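Final report, Chapter 2: Outcomes

The project's central promise was a pipeline that accepts a single protein chain and returns its three-dimensional structure in a standardized token representation, suitable for archiving and comparison. That pipeline is now operational. To close this chapter, we reproduce one record exactly as it appears in the project archive, with the input sequence first and the structure output second.
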Amino acid sequence: MSPVWFPTVVRSLVRTIALVVGGVILTAYSLRADGTSDVKQQASTTTTEEGAEYKNWIELGIGGLIINGDSAQFKQEHRMSGDVFGGIQDMHYEQTVGKNAALSVDGHAIFDNNDYDVKIDLSKPKLGYIRAGYTEFRNWYDGNGGFFPHNDVFFSPPFSEMHIDRGEAWVELGLRLPDWPEITLHYSHQFRDGQKDSTIWGDTTLTGLTVQPTRKIAPAYRDINETRDIFAIDALKTFGNTDVGLGMRMEFDNNDDRLQIERNPRELPPVVPAPGAQRFITQNDKNKVDLFSGHATTETRFSDSLWFTTAYSYTTLGSDLAGTRIYGTHYNASFSDPILTLQPGDPAAPLQDEGFLNLAGGSQVEQHVVNLNLMWVPLKNLTVLTAFRYTLENKESDSIYLDTNPTPNVPPFTPANPAGGFHQDIPILTSSDSSETFNKFAERMELRYTGIANWLFYTEGEWEEEYGDINERQVAAGMVDSANKDLSLLWQKYTAGFNWYPLGRLNLSAQYYHKILEYDNESTGAHQSLVYQKWNTDDVNVRITWRPRIPACLGTLALVSRYDFVTASVEGQWETPAQTLTLQPEHTALIANHMITESITWNPLARLYLQGDLSYVLNQTKTPAANIDLIPYTNPSVLNFRNDYWTVAAGAGYVLDAKTDLRVDYSFYRANDYSNNDLVGMPYGMGATEHALSATISRQLAKNVRLTLKYSYFNYTDETSGGHNNYEAHSVYSTLQFRF
């Protein structure tokens, strides 16, 4: 069973203690540094007043935000929060303990951004070390759902701003005794806790359309509560010309998550006929995982030109599943609560409001991995690298649950049993099980040649083959539904390239690769399946770095240019439902991507430097579905996918005097891929513009004290969200660094 003894109170206590200890250490050392009479210590840290060597520092910071518009979107993008925030921006402390032991402390702590990190390291040569640390940071999420432009439909989310706290507390011990194996023990506790948005949106018919009015735009969110505990031990010992490593890892995961979806929001009388259609779904997913893994490695150096390495690992994983999917008049409803707004679906398809109760199940996975690698230098300028990996994986899974379905109300009708309403039917006991076996092979060979002056040539081939069998079965109300699949996959990649250094100020790199992925699925009993798919991908990229000679009066100039072109074609073949017909293979997608980047650094004066970066991306995926118009409309429900955008970043720095520096930065992002096809589909293309501007001034107040002040401005507009994600923000942040 997974350990779960690390509650929020303990995390807060650890964080507070770590910060207090760090502050006390730094304060005590600062006072000691002023009054010490230890000549040796003083000599090691300070030579002369002008040449002081400061090994330690603490940097304090404080700032604030003013956000207009969607503050959650700003926090999601920039990971800043709070009207006022600050704390320890950065700290480092190191000190000799005893004769030759070393202690170091590093970390930072920014309150209201919930950004904390501390690491303590105590080490002694020829004995070992002990290290410990704690990290916690927060990610914010915007709860907005979709926006439908035809009728300006937008539903306010249940939480306009959400966040998840992620963190880790860890400790590591390393034994490094002479002639002993190197032994390392590590323990880590990781967690995720909070709420985040989900793109599994709920549906609505309040779109203003008379034909096919349903669109999925209602916001949804997830409750996250996850922990993971990891124990690991590794040992490494050298025997002659061979290094031998052994290790073991144990991992215990405990996840308790919930997906919360609202369907048909606001669709209650009198907006729609009684009893309405609004309902809420709460799906609770619980998963406990116990993982045990062991591995062994060897590295043998037969000579400087011949190295051989091996590795083997064995992993077993067991998981226990539990959960429910319940419909109600509110989130987290009980199954016994009456809900009259249930909806049936297409009789030929699974029922629309199908739920489940008392899910119980689990899986058992066993995996063996063997890895062999060889490095050989048969000639002075030729290097050969080869690798082989084999993986055997077996998985057995089973589950049992109560299947719940809506049933139409029947007379006599009452307010609690209205005509046209539905109620939950008697749950049906359902069970399912599956077994999977996969054999995977991977090979790699690389050749590198440096026999021509100022040239490096290389070529590489990679191959992966996978063969698998999947057997699935479901039993419900005495009916058995089963499917058997025989899968195979072949992946190949061939690469060739060179690096050329014609001048000390000029170098050129170019590379080409061709990649093939083929997937085959021979199945029986499946309702519909992809029986064959093939990807062909080609990539060409060129990079030039040039530092041209320019007149000395113009300073120095450096240019880095890169062009990358990727094209991929996808071919697929399907079986129709009930396997009555196998369709002919057809091209299902054509992908083309161009990426152009340019970077410029110019120092026109000793005190002035200018930097600029430009990136332009043209990315399009064409599919046959985009050529199908839905009568009586003139635009398709599935559009060709576009992800074209460009970004510009520019910066300038100027040294005002010997103690003062000034820097200005600006960045711009623009995506113009929004296309409105709301009559027959949901417009998803990105249409957004963002500006970010900052100015920073830094002043050396004393030899060991520096003050920095930074102002930032952000402006973001989003056409896809109908402006609901727009924001404008101002940020001011100042730091004061003390070195000692």
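Archive annotation: The chain has three helices and 31 strands.
This record, like all others produced under the grant, will remain available to the consortium after the project formally closes.
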